[in-house]
Each structure stands twice: as structure tokens, then as C-alpha cells.
Amino acid sequence: MKFGVLKDIKNGEYRVVMTPAEANILVSEGTEVYVAHNAGYAAGFDDEAYEAAGAVIIESNEEIWKTCDFVAKVKEIEEEEYELMRENQLIYCCIHPAAHREEVDALLRKKVIAITAEDSHRYGSPNCEAAGKAGAFMGLWAMLSINGGCGKFVSGLGAAPGVKAVVCGLGTVGKAAVEALYTMGAWVSAADINIGVLREVSSKYNGQVNTFVSNRYNLAKEIADADLVINCVRWPKNATEFMIDRSMVASMHRGAVIVDVSNDYGCIETFHETTHDDPIYIEEGVVHYCVSNIPGAIAGSTSQAYAAGILPHFQSIIKNGLAEACVRDGFLRRSLTAYKGYLTHEETSGIQNRPWVKPEIILGIQDRKLDPAPPATVTRSENYYPEFQ
Fold first, then answer.
1. Is 105 a catalytic residue?
2. Where are the alpha helices (DSSP H) in the chain?
3. What is the DSSP letter of 227?
4. Which of 264, 288, 313, 329 is catalytic?
5. Radius of gyration of the chain (CA)
6. Do domains 2-124+299-388 and 130-289 have the same CATH topology?
7. How confident is the model at residue 195 (pLDDT cuts 50, 70, 90)?
8. Neighbours of 321 (CB within 10 A)
9. Cα–Cα distance measured from residue 87 to residue 84, given in angstroms and rounded to the nearest whole number
10. 0.85 cut: is pTM over it?
11. pLDDT of residue 352 exceeding 90
């Protein structure tokens, strides 16, 4: 099989999906690995390192798309790449399909086999850990006076208090944000709807991180007193109300900061997406940092962690074929998004009102003993293609 590493072209994206270490492993196992010119350069991995690992450098992404049976990148497929996809080509990247209708249209129209990376991580994505830790750092940077913030230093000074931070959501992202803020000396409070998770976090930090149940009353009270709010909640795309509305934002003091790591429209009323080139804006007197690919700012570390975490998926698909790989790994199976013209992603079906087919059915493995995995989201859909009912 010819495996291709694409250079990510999303604005402000510096990560690479595979480092020379993983390329060398695939090559040693008999896979032909092709890497787009300078795909890893911004993350600190030169073409020469890939060549030394046994990979072949290809001059452009266009050639990777044309040459390889299996291609991978970090972020979504950009519009300019839609026509480069080929029928039956296998694609692995962070598709975020439920939020990107036109991208899904292209995947189905081109009859590719697409896997949405963000749903495939059994132990949480390294990108999520990176987003939480880097998001905390960026929030403190946004708070600097030179950025319009209130100019508080995270751990305080001799006669000045430290930053009061509220972290919303204690999944992988939120736990990472708490760890970074606590380590740097902030006064941290953390919110979640899961009391068991709240107990876990409180115990880990010996009660020095305040925890509270996330509801509108508690959030409004805590946010009003916060210097920094970091949103790590994956908000339902069909939600009808905001988690943090404009009045809550307006209750914060001038120069306070909101970092929206999750970047889900509908969660924070004052949110709009930003980029690394222009990362902050001020609304209701509050500095907002809403970059959609925060981990791209620490591309070297994130690329290493991410590439190591997803390599087993690549190895299993290449060695065993997609169907067998999905039998063995339920997290890979649930992340199958499009298969030769059919939608296979339940959340996308539910959010976009499209018919879908379960991955195990389209792959013909429904009668096998399948590795279990929980649904990726709470969104359910019974809108099946008629031929698969």
C-alpha cells in the first residue's frame, strides 16, 4: 500500500500527522511512505529526516493525492482539495463532519472511504490534551495588558493576587487545562455535570481545585467573579440555548478573558472563530481567544504525541484491511464517516438530517464478535438508507 502524508494547508496549522519516527516504522513493515515537501517543516521535521527514515519526498499535495491509496493529515479537508480525492481512496483526518455539510457532500460525491480522526481515540486525543494546556497558556497571554487584558499575572506577585480561573468541562481538554493552570499557580475552579469526575479532580489536587456542578445558576455566579474562563465543553450542535449567554459575559470585569477551546457555535453567545494570525477580539469588555486549532501553536510536541497515538490505526488498516481493523477496534469503527458514497457517521446523520448506515453493516462484519466502543456523541439517528433497513 502507498501511504501519503499530506501537508496541512488550513490557515495557521503547523502540525504534521506523521513524524519521521512513525514513517520509519511503516517503511520497516513494508509500506511505501510518501511525504509532501515541507509537510513537517513547521513542526521541526525536515524533509531530510523523512528521507533518512525511508520515506519518499513528493513535491506537492496534488501528487500525494494522485499517488497514494491511503492519505492522512491533521485538520479538515479544505475546499481546494475536494476535487483531488479519488474514488475508493482511504482518508484519515479531523473531518468534524457534523459541522461541515459541504465537506461531507464532497466525501460522498467522490465515493472515498473517510475516517474522522477525532472519534477514533480510545484514551482521548493528544490534540485534546494539547488544546487544554496550550489554551490555558494562551488565555494568560491574552490577559496581558498589551493585548487589552487586565494585566494579572497567573500566580500573583508579593502584594497582588493571582488569576481566578474557571474551567468548564472536565474531559481530556478540561483536565489538561486545570493541570496547566494549577501548576502555574492560578486559583482554579472547575465545572462539570459528572459528580464522579468532580470528585476525581478534587482528590487529585488535594482539594486545592474548587469544583462545582455545571448549571446556569452556578456558572453565572462563578463567571462573574472570574478573570479567566476556559470552555472545554463539547456543546451539542442542535442545542437551542447558550451555555454562557451575553449577560454572563457582560458580568465579567473589563479585561477578563474567555478562551473557547471547543469552538462550538451556540455554546458561548459572544463567540466567533479566530485564527493564529488574528487570535483575539474584545466584546462586552472581555478579551476572547477563539482559535479553532490551538494545538497548532505547539506543533512540535503535538505532532509527536499525536502521531504516536494514531500509528496503530494505520498499521492495523494496512496489515489487516479496513473491515478487520474495525472488527478489532470499536473506536476506529465508530469513526468511519463515509464509505464509497454512503454516510456512516451517526452524529452527522442526526444533525444534518441525512440517511446513514452503521459501519458494521456496510463493512459486512455485523455478525462478527466486535470490539465494543461507546457512541462518539449523544446524538442518535434512525434515519437509515432504505436498502439497509
1. no
2. 20-28, 47-52, 61-67, 101-110, 126-142, 172-183, 195-204, 216-224, 246-251, 299-320, 322-328, 330-334, 346-352, 359-362
3. S
4. 264
5. 22
6. yes
7. very high
8. 13
9. 10
10. yes
11. yes
> Kindly report the CA angle at 12 between 3 and 138, in degrees rounded to 5?
120
What's 111's DSSP letter? Answer: T
pLDDT at 238 over 80: no
At residue 307, φ and ψ (nearest 5 deg) are -60, -40
**Residues for the chain: how many in total?**
389
Confirm whether 264 is a catalytic residue: yes
Q: How far apart are CA 61 and CA 124, in angstroms?
A: 29
- Give the residues across from 188 on adjacent strands: 165
pLDDT digits 0-9 by tens, 118-144: 999 998 889 899 999 999 999 999 999
CA distance 166 to 169: 10
Element (DSSP H or E) covering residue 356: none
| Residue ranges per structural domain of the chain | 2-124+299-388, 130-289
Annotated catalytic residue within 8, 96, 121, 192: 96
CB atoms within 10 A of CB 198: 20
CA–CA distance, 119 with 17 (Å, rounded to integer):
16
Sheet with strand 286-289: strands edge to edge: 210-213, 187-192, 164-168, 228-231, 257-260, 286-289, 280-283
pLDDT in tens, 19-78: 999 999 999 999 999 999 999 999 999 999 999 999 999 999 999 999 999 999 999 999
**Which cell goes with 126?**
493528544
Q: Per the CATH hierarchy, to which homologous superfamily does domain 130-289 belong?
A: NAD(P)-binding Rossmann-like Domain (3.40.50.720)
Separation of alpha carbons 169 and 162, rounded Å: 22
Q: Which CATH architecture describes the domain 2-124+299-388? A: 3-Layer(aba) Sandwich (3.40)
Nearest 10 degrees: Cα torsion 101, 91, 75, 237: 30
